[in-house]
């Protein structure tokens, strides 16, 4: 029987080859690869199909999303969806969320399968919380999948699948690039294919979206199956072949790779995506370890191997690679092929051509060996070849007439070789699609010429230059611009900067990264004073190209860096520019390009910039960029740039040169240290749990009321602080802001004294939010200086490596620093008030100047630092824990480690707590230890061992120390180490206790639990109240009061589902709540009526609490 579906093809092969290896996954870490047989693939698929049919509503299971990374179960997951029957929609976890959300909405997606590894469920919900929420969740344990039922928010309501299709029927105008069949011709059928027929569709992809928002392309089985049958025959695939899955799921050649393999009894090799950007490792994995025999790839993927690897491994005489099929971009010239192949190589080359709108390939041409070997045809182009099974290819002139010679546009179709684009529901058999590509017909062969409009193909994806231009022109730093695809090789952007643009090209690149996909980023940005025009008033692109070419000529005449110092400096500039890093970002010698935000496209740009800088071609440069460190790259360039004498000088002084970037920091250290004491300032700092650090050094201020008149003390747990401010109203701001009265910034000359709702209801509204670039798990530090106006600043870090200082009044960013890795540690202010201290995943403790973020000192521990530092108000020592199992006492003034203490095993995740009387430092570890330490010398005074780790930070009163445990208990110990009591909850405790010290006679402890409750305890473990939130409580509560609102104290706390709760601290009654569009692990900090907290949707939020009328 003729197979009409993709899963039919696989089931037939599995019946014959049931015990043979079907899929191999190699994570390329040195671990043993994982293999599964055809029988296991089919059984896994059958189980998934059954589960989906049971769990999902029959009216909404015609299409399923698949949100995953490449892995061993990929084939079973796809087959399981196809057998429902349903179509699969790959959703790339690394794609911009707004583009993926648009695609999912176009598909009317109601269900999505999410891989359970890598925290992908959290990532999905965080990324798409603006558009949807999860209506139901089912864990498919054996499948390593989670099934989510999606509920789109009101503003994105889709209706049912049938409603969407009904709406689409009005759009039978079809796509603008569609050529319908002529019903007047008797030889042409007008029979329609209907996408709503169950089992019609196999998968749904989307166009690149560079012509605007992406359009979905729904592909029927009958469209793609002929591709599979014909290509496996042309490639002569046998059960002995190993095929490499080179394409991502969102690129339709992946369908060919998957089903040509599994329909032939061959084996499919899958590896992590990041390895595809590491040429040496990729070549070794493919051809040394797994002996790949058939590979389909873009020319760009092959080029990144470099000539040396191509000759020695990929296309050597002894290579395992039997077939190399290239598509997605213009085929390389014969001269390039000859350069790639080693003598004696027998690999067979194929040229593939096609478009996503008629998935996947339309034509194929096998390059004869005698053509490649011939030296008389060095520059001949390669034909597109003949149409594949069921495919019709036509070349038409501008009038739409078919031609047999000369230039014309190419159209693709066939009776059943058609897809549904956008809202198309039914289509006539035989529909032809215009590709937008121009070809030339010569002697019955079709040769690709390129695109003669603004649409180009770049890195295998379609790109609209007009859209790039519109995106650039929308930036505030750009007055005008023009874009060209120079010699179909480089995307050049010409920019006329706006007057307010101070640092043109860098600022523009930083902005474009936010709005353009990787394949749309320019290779080169050329700043020009104005755009030249033709007589017709159009931009004169020829003149602009001349400007670019003159610049390139000038670079060639430049002799390159003069010595190692200049090379190091120039390379730093290029590295930061290509990776869109700030100019003051610290680049360590061991920094790796791929793990610093680089990718294959950026590596090409860096390679070209380096060769332009030195004025010559550098062998194996791409290899070093992708596989080496910054230091390796420097040495590689120096090796080919300097004379032997220069090399000796470089080697002798290399260590000094490596420290050059840090030497300027050392100068700053000496300067600051010299004036450390005389620059001390009055301040109040506020951090999570209501921890307050106050300092007054009697600094007079003529223009404002004294903020504080206290000596160095450290009070904890109560933020009812009387304060007055005489500040100017902030200037207008472009941050996300809501107008509200501001207790910190009232109108000039007036004290803020407005009465609010007293004991009545409360409400929260957003004043501003600030984008940090990635998840914000750290909690804010609020620093209010006693000198100067508008003195309140929020300090907070995020997973984007950024540390931000944000003006509390306006939400404007005062400064931003990019540290070496992600930041989960919350910042602390030093005794003098001039510096903030924050830990980082790169194992460093950073001491940054509070005023401008400049590095004063960095101290290296042995592992990530997630702990929040504690400052001794007497000595000024900073205590901080590290995942290297140590706690450190740091003297910021002298830049020395006074002592370090190994904490008995287990990382120190939580924050140390310094108790004043008795003077003891409390430290908790993930090794289940609670330690009391002498803060002056690091000696252990006593310790308590538990069965479960401590994520919670210890908190103290004069009588006892309190801590939460993963075992679900809150423990209370005396200061001599005796356990006084414990209180049990019904879930692990990650939240740190918050102590209400407003009344020494009636102290309360508030703590959250993963059982969704917030608990309030009186002395002696008596439960005063508990409040049920809507999710786990990870954060530390904050107890506060504000006499503008009422005399009773309140509790602010967040739950992980993004809810902020304001509770009455006496009764636990809910006063008000607020929902954030993402998960929340950050703890809130409150000052007066202003509340600050971070969210995993990348933003820091500032809210205002007020009374309702």
UniProtKB/TrEMBL annotation:
Residues 161-188 are annotated as: Disordered. Residues 170-188 have a biased composition (Polar residues). The keyword Transmembrane helix does not apply. Pfam families: AMP-binding, Beta-prop_ACSF4. Transmembrane segments: none annotated. Residues 565-641 form the Carrier domain. SMART domains: PQQ. InterPro entries: AASDH_AMP, AMP-bd_C_sf, AMP-binding_CS, AMP-dep_synth/lig_dom, ANL_N_sf, Beta-ala_Activ/Resist, PP-bd_ACP, PQQ_b-propeller_rpt. Keywords: Lipid metabolism. PANTHER family: BETA-ALANINE-ACTIVATING ENZYME. Belongs to the ATP-dependent AMP-binding enzyme family. This is Beta-alanine-activating enzyme isoform X1. It comes from Huso huso (Beluga).
